[in-house]
Amino acid sequence: MTGPNLSEVPGVELDGTDSRSHLDPAALRHADSLKWTLYDEGVIPMWIADMDYPVAPAILAALQDRLTRGLGYPQLMGDPVLTRLIQEKAATQGLTDLPAEGVALLPGVVPGIFAAVHALTAPGDGVLTMLPVYHPFHLSINDQRRVVQAAALKDSGTRWEIDWEALEAAVTPSTRLMLLCHPHNPTGRVWDAEELGKLRDFALRHNLYVCSDELHADLSYAGAPFQSFAADPRVRGRTVTLTGPCKAFNTAGLGIGAMLSHDAALIKRLKTAVGGLMGHPSALSITMWQAALQGGGPWLAETVDYLRGNRDFLQDFLARRLPSVKSYPVESTYLAWLDVRAHPLAGDIQQVLLERARVAIHNGPVFAPDPQKAEYQGFIRVNFATSRALLAEALERMAEVLGGDVE
């Protein structure tokens, strides 16, 4: 399969100096990269959620400096510097007056999802979530013998929206917890003020705990401050917010996250429930997050701007070359949710794209539990956090397969 002449592809700049614009696949395909080594050489990986961009200089400098000192146990009881920085950042998203005791570090956000399900529900209880959704949501429910109570999002014709009737129908007397993805993965929605207000009313009406995964909050294209679910004081006592730096700063290999709540007793309840099963962040991951919050802002702003350009390039490409593929511009994340169900090859789209286009994507059924998987066949999640040139190459390959004659 021949690739495009990238100099002729709209939106591709080959003469820039931005490190995000000049990515060498051979350098990206190093032995430590799951993303680039899971599939054969020649495959463009657009599946797992990490970016291809170099790490922020402020983070690299802080890590190099940290290696000049001992690597004994870090502040396991709660790093005071990082706690203060997290409190300050949380306040900009509406979580004002967050107590230090309401901040607990995690080895990653996914363990926090599992901890919330384990601590706030019992086997057989219902846990509510909206589909499609990041797969650890439904795995954390099923794997711990709770019941997934699923409400599918609806396609309004301009964006993905909450189906309020489906949400009400999914609740039962056994429902104890709502797992909220905000910003939403995989659709890229940022729930707006009206939707957040209705979700808060809903949680209060049904007396639900809420675990809000806000990992992608810093990757918003809205131009307005992100608002946490628990920004409303009415729901602060029943909400655990999960956050971390790994998506915004491309540091998934240095696992760390945090659970936040204005109710310190709620945080203690989660920590006690999982005990020594949880583990703790590493010394280097703590240093990384400190550096990201202290000096990573300019790098992040530039990255979001570049990602916005990639998002727009992808949408324009689909409109011009693959109009049968439905996709709405994401409001956050670098993950596009594409509806390919109108194509005759939709029934095996992941293998088709892998084998014929040499592009690896995430298959839609991954984002639903077993009973609902079939409903998402023909959807794909595409990671566009790469160079404009590599994105163009991948999309051209997809267009050659999906836009050609099909027997």
From TrEMBL:
<keyword id="KW-0663">Pyridoxal phosphate</keyword>
<dbReference type="GO" id="GO:0047804">
    <property type="term" value="F:cysteine-S-conjugate beta-lyase activity"/>
</dbReference>
<feature type="domain" description="Aminotransferase class I/classII large">
    <location>
        <begin position="49"/>
        <end position="397"/>
    </location>
</feature>
<dbReference type="InterPro" id="IPR004839">
    <property type="entry name" value="Aminotransferase_I/II_large"/>
</dbReference>
<dbReference type="Pfam" id="PF00155">
    <property type="entry name" value="Aminotran_1_2"/>
</dbReference>
<dbReference type="InterPro" id="IPR015424">
    <property type="entry name" value="PyrdxlP-dep_Trfase"/>
</dbReference>
<comment type="similarity">
    <text>Belongs to the class-II pyridoxal-phosphate-dependent aminotransferase family. MalY/PatB cystathionine beta-lyase subfamily.</text>
</comment>
<protein>
    <recommendedName>
        <fullName>cysteine-S-conjugate beta-lyase</fullName>
        <ecNumber>4.4.1.13</ecNumber>
    </recommendedName>
</protein>
<dbReference type="InterPro" id="IPR051798">
    <property type="entry name" value="Class-II_PLP-Dep_Aminotrans"/>
</dbReference>
<dbReference type="InterPro" id="IPR015421">
    <property type="entry name" value="PyrdxlP-dep_Trfase_major"/>
</dbReference>
<dbReference type="InterPro" id="IPR015422">
    <property type="entry name" value="PyrdxlP-dep_Trfase_small"/>
</dbReference>
<keyword id="KW-0456">Lyase</keyword>
